[in-house]
Design a protein that fits this description.
185 residues; mainly alpha; Arc Repressor Mutant, subunit A; 8 helices; transcription regulation; RNA polymerase, sigma-24 subunit, ECF subfamily; RNA_pol_sigma70_r2; DNA binding; RNA_pol_sigma-70_dom
Length: 185
């Protein structure tokens, strides 16, 4: 059984990231959820989504949390409010389509998924080795940015940058292959 630290009750075997996200949730989630419920008009599911996204953004932006508790809480509330507003704007511009009938189910066809898999592999081959390596570690290896940085012996910022550019290049390659539709600008 894991030994718990006396001050937080968190497991001593947890990583620093896991401890941070648990501490964030324990300290702020209830207050943020109540605020999100007010902002969403009582829609508990939307409120929960907004709180989770806010806490995830806080975890990714840990320098904010290192500041004073008042500053961190203000940042959390501001981020939550922005998240709810962004989601409201998205729904307003892209209304949900409700149909009375469900589309017919097609028989399982593995040809399409196999073909798409081949196209993705070909698109990955077009990436530079550094970009492909970071994508493989983070997406296929399931590693966080920090874990990938440690494994590849490069700074975490470099991993983030390579991921950004690798995803852009992969998207472009998939658009050229016809797997992904080009977005109209």
């Amino acid at each position: 059984m894991d030994e718990a630290t006396p001050s937080t009750g968190l497991s001593a075997s947890m990583s620093a990231d896991e401890q941070l996200i648990h501490a964030l949730h324990a300290e702020h989630a209830d207050a943020l959820w109540r605020y999100a419920c007010r902002l969403t008009g009582g829609d508990e599911a939307r409120a929960q989504d907004a709180v989770q996204e806010t806490l995830l953004r806080a975890w990714r932006n840990s320098r904010v949390l290192a500041s004073s508790p008042d500053h961190a809480r203000r940042w959390l509330y501001r981020t939550l409010r922005s998240r709810v507003i962004d989601e409201w704007r998205y729904r307003k511009n892209r209304p949900e389509v409700i149909t009375d009938t469900l589309p017919e189910r097609h028989a399982a066809d593995h040809v399409d998924s196999a073909l798409q898999g081949l196209l993705v592999v070909e698109a990955l081959r077009k990436l530079s080795p550094a970009h492909r390596e970071v994508l493989m570690e983070c997406f296929y290896g399931g590693r966080s940015v920090n874990e990938a940085a440690e494994k590849l012996a490069i700074p975490a910022g470099t991993v983030k940058s390579r991921l950004h550019y690798a995803l852009r290049a992969l998207k472009l390659a998939l658009e050229e292959a016809g797997v992904v539709r080009r977005e109209e600008r």
